[in-house]
Write a structure and sequence with these properties.
elongated; 1 helix; Reverse transcriptase domain-containing protein; about 45% helix; 2 strands; single chain
């Protein structure tokens, strides 16, 4: 193979690499554009959820005047047994000393400084 054919083959390979590089750059631009679009849509979705989460859901709470929780039923229909509620604890009366007489101070000796 002579030098001229070598240069032509090398130029063809170089042109092919440049075309592939340009194709990759175009694909990267498309991916970047797609990611930017998805991020914008995701941000918009997050803002929509934040706006809707600030409003309250309708409540169907039933009062429990005796404070007895026996079971919980969710809106989906799942039912859970409630925790056992211990009986009310009576406060223990503190032990009060009935002695009103003060102890004798006769046995207390203070040190004397020399």
């Amino acid at each position: 193979m002579d030098f001229e054919s070598y240069v032509k083959a090398n130029d063809a390979i170089l042109k092919n690499v440049q075309n592939q590089n340009q194709g990759l750059q175009n694909q990267m631009a498309n991916v970047t554009s797609l990611l930017t679009s998805l991020c914008t849509k995701f941000d918009d979705l997050g803002n929509t959820n934040q706006a809707s989460s600030s409003s309250s859901l309708p409540s169907n709470t039933i009062p429990n005047p005796r404070n007895e929780a026996k079971a919980i039923t969710t809106r989906s229909g799942a039912s859970y047994d409630g925790p056992p509620i211990p009986p009310p604890v009576k406060e223990k009366e503190s032990d009060v000393t009935k002695d009103t007489e003060l102890p004798s101070t006769e046995d207390i000796h203070l040190p004397i400084d020399p």
